[in-house]
Amino acid sequence: LVLASDEAIIVTTPEPTSITDSYGLIKSLTQRNRDFKMNVVINKAKDDIEGRKVAKRVIEISNKFLSVRPNELGIIYKDEEVEKRILVQKPFMVSSPRSKASECLQRIVKTVLE
């Protein structure tokens, strides 16, 4: 299904299992279409340093073993507002538009639209 789109946004977290899964998806997409455009978003990062470190790791591993270089699209910070909104089943972007996670997601959306 992903290959039916023009490009993919692969969302991963700093957790090792998530990083491994995202690499597996990148590998699978690359085997089917070497020129497929892939972007990486790091979710639940405690700060920019952690987010950039994880993005760099995913990108470098992909480049080293698959000779592809996904684009770093952005980082979404770990935010208690998201957890609160999940429990009450309300979108955090609507209920908490000024939360850290909302602001991060707005930057990513702006980048994609540009």
Overall pLDDT metric: 95
Report the uncertain regions. Answer: none
Shape: globular
Helix-strand sequence: EHEHEHHH
Q: How does the major sheet shape up? A: 3 strands, parallel
Could you tell me the strand content as a percent range?
Answer: 15-25%
By secondary-structure content and strand pairing, the structural class works out as alpha/beta
Q: Provide a count of the helices.
A: 5
Strand order of the largest sheet: 1-2-3
Cα Rg: 15 Å
Helix content: 40-55%
What's the N-to-C terminus distance?
24 Å
How many β strands by DSSP?
3
Explained architecture:
This protein is α/β, with parallel strands linked by helices and 114 residues long. It has helices at residues 16-32, 48-66, 80-87, 92-95, 100-113; strands at residues 7-12, 37-45, 71-77. Helix 1 (16-32) runs parallel beside helix 2 (48-66). The chain is globular and about 40 Å long. The two termini are 24 Å apart. 25% of the residues are buried. The model has no long low-confidence stretch (mean pLDDT 95).
Topology:
Layout: E1 7-12, H1 16-32, E2 37-45, H2 48-66, E3 71-77, H3 80-87, H4 92-95, H5 100-113
Parallel strand pairs: 1-2, 2-3
Helix pairs in contact: 1-2
Describe this protein with a few key phrases.
54% helix, globular, single chain, 114 residues, 19% strand, three-stranded parallel β-sheet, alpha/beta
